[in-house]
UniProtKB/TrEMBL annotation:
E.C. number: 4.1.1.37
Role noted for this protein: Catalyzes the decarboxylation of four acetate groups of uroporphyrinogen-III to yield coproporphyrinogen-III.
Keyword tags: Cytoplasm, Decarboxylase, Lyase, Porphyrin biosynthesis
Any Gene Ontology biological process: protoporphyrinogen IX biosynthetic process
Entry coiled-coil feature ranges: none
Pfam families hit by this protein: URO-D (PF01208)
CDD domains: URO-D
Protein name: Uroporphyrinogen decarboxylase
Any one Gene Ontology cellular component term annotated for this protein: cytosol
Domain Uroporphyrinogen decarboxylase (URO-D): 31-40, 148-164
Residues annotated for substrate binding in this entry: R36, Q37, A38, G39, R40, D85, Y160, S215, H329
Catalytic activity: uroporphyrinogen III + 4 H(+) = coproporphyrinogen III + 4 CO2
Subunit organization: Homodimer.
Length: 357
């Protein structure tokens, strides 16, 4: 296929610009989607969610389908991401937790001992029928647009289980990791198994790519990450077996971990805004594509700043084997949805014209 400007989407999601960029193949335009594109920045989302709790909504196939489609219809993004949450596999397995509005996941009985680790219930695949239904419905509705399935990585899930909720320093998590290395390994093993089950269900129902969110891995040194976390994230990707879908691996503040994040088994490394994409491409090496990395706060600035920063990210992304345009982290709730639509149009327009000298 030539890289000629042909804005028409190809017929199969497996041959979409998202999948092609993830594999380092030529694309018609740089594909763009946004982490947290489904959610509070959209009035139609708030209307649909009114009266339904976050975790109940995630288990209702019709709501999941509609909420996932909303940003695709509104912004014309090149991929849908399943409306769900990283803590959902834990909830389905029987962990007592909730997502508190404006706070995040809160766990009723945090893991504080080796016995707590051993009491963590396994995720039975037959409890994921709602997920299979939602993904099948979505794939039918999406047509040529690929659906990205996702899961939380073992480390990031462990932070919620051990801290009991969101935290900045993750001190209890690290203390447990150092004090109880065997139980830590067992905990992350179990979380890897349930994350892999969650991903397999989505891929077998038709998801065209997967993203593993290790949002908080950036709090670790490279040595600790390599020894105590990476093998478990690799186990999640390995759990996909021969399923031939691109694997995206993302964390925040991972500048020093970028080569390792790739080594865990990613086709695409997600990068936050702290490291320019040309530098990230050097750190990650030639065999992987990049995703990112506009600072979500830029979308709250004036239009000329937005345009300048989008242009910079598109230019720097040309250094990568393939580039999937995204934010460096999720859409902030106050973001004007019109700005997101504008960014999609601008990325498409810029990436169809030759690079600036
Ligand atoms: O990206 C998408 O649009 C798809 C849906 C999605 C959600 N959560 C929906 C959601 C995805 C991919 C996630 C992943 C997720 N959840 C991560 C990894 C990505 C990241 O942001 O780093 C993490 C760490 C979580 C845990 C979590 N769930 C947090 C920190 C929060 C925010 C709390 C808040 O209200 O500020 C949630 C809740 C959540 N997950 C919301 C949505 C749309 C908001 C809840 C609501 O609308 O009531």
């Amino acid at each position: 296929m030539s890289a000629a400007a042909d804005p028409a989407p190809s017929a199969a999601p497996s041959d979409s610009d998202l999948v092609r960029a993830a594999r380092g193949l030529p694309v018609s335009r740089t594909p763009v989607w946004f982490m947290r594109q489904a959610g509070r920045s959209l009035p139609e989302y708030r209307a649909l969610r009114a009266g339904t709790g976050m975790l109940a909504a995630c288990q209702d196939p019709d709501l999941v389908t509609e909420i996932t489609l909303q940003p695709v219809r509104r912004h014309g993004v090149d991929a849908a991401i399943l409306f769900s949450d990283i803590v959902l596999p834990l909830l389905v397995a029987g962990v007592d937790l909730d997502i508190k509005p404006g706070v995040g996941p809160v766990v009723a009985q945090p893991i504080r001992s080796v016995a707590d680790v051993d009491a963590l219930p396994p995720l039975e695949p037959d409890r994921l029928a709602f997920l299979d239904t939602a993904v099948r419905q979505l794939v039918a509705e999406l047509g040529p647009t690929p659906l990205i399935g996702f899961a939380g990585a073992p480390f990031t899930l462990a932070t919620y289980l051990i801290e009991g909720g969101p935290s900045k320093e993750h001190a209890r998590t690290k203390a447990f990791m150092y004090a109880e290395p065997e139980a830590w390994g067992r905990l992350l093993d179990r979380l890897a198994v349930s994350a892999a089950t969650f991903l397999r269900t989505q891929v077998d129902a038709g998801a065209s790519a997967v993203q593993l969110f290790d949002s908080w891995a950036g709090v670790l040194s490279a040595a600790d990450y390599a020894e105590r976390v990476l093998p478990h994230s690799r186990a999640v990707f390995d759990g996909l077996g021969s399923r031939d879908v691109p694997r995206i691996h993302f964390g925040v503040g991972t500048g020093e971990l970028l080569p390792l994040i790739g080594d865990a088994g990613a086709d695409v490394v997600g990068v936050d805004w702290r490291i320019p994409l040309d530098e990230a491409a050097r750190r990650v090496g030639p065999g992987r594509s990049l995703q990112g990395n506009l600072d979500p706060a830029v979308l709250l600035a004036d239009r000329s700043t937005v345009d300048r920063e989008v242009r910079r990210v598109v230019e720097q992304g040309r250094a990568a084997r393939g580039h999937v345009f995204n934010l460096g982290h999720g859409v902030l709730p106050d973001t004007d949805p019109g700005v997101l639509t504008h960014v999609v149009e601008l990325v498409h327009e810029l990436s169809m014209s030759p690079a600036h000298p």
